[in-house]
């Protein structure tokens, strides 16, 4: 993830919890971002949603060849 675009820092543990929560709470889950924020801890639902949006943006850039996974 592009560190300059992140509004708050995320620990390795929070990122792991975020990944696990994304697998549990799919797109159809009511109050998805609130539930993921509770699972992560220390983040608001807005921070979690923005973290996801940045992740998706980074993945799109990688797929388009803007970034090399070797960097």
From TrEMBL:
- Signal in keyword set: no
Q: Which GO terms describe its cellular component?
A: nucleus
InterPro entries for this protein: Homeodomain-like_sf, RADIALIS-like, SANT/Myb
A molecular function (GO) held by this record is: DNA-binding transcription factor activity
* Pfam families, alphabetized: Myb_DNA-binding_2
Keyword Nucleus present in the record's keywords: the answer is yes
Q: Which UniProt keywords apply?
A: Nucleus, Transcription, Transcription regulation
Q: Name its cellular compartments.
A: Nucleus
Check the record and name the SMART domains matching this protein: SANT
Reading the lineage from the top rank, the first entry is Eukaryota
Please list the residue ranges annotated as the Myb-like domain. 8-56
Quote the protein name from its UniProt record. Myb-like domain-containing protein
Q: Which organism is it from?
A: Ensete ventricosum
């Amino acid at each position: 993830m592009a560190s300059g675009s992140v509004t708050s820092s995320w620990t390795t543990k929070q990122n792991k919890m975020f990944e696990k929560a994304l697998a549990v709470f799919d797109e159809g889950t009511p109050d998805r971002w609130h539930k993921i924020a509770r699972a992560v801890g220390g983040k608001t639902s807005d921070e979690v949603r923005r973290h996801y949006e940045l992740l998706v943006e980074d993945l799109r850039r990688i797929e388009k060849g803007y970034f090399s996974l070797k960097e």
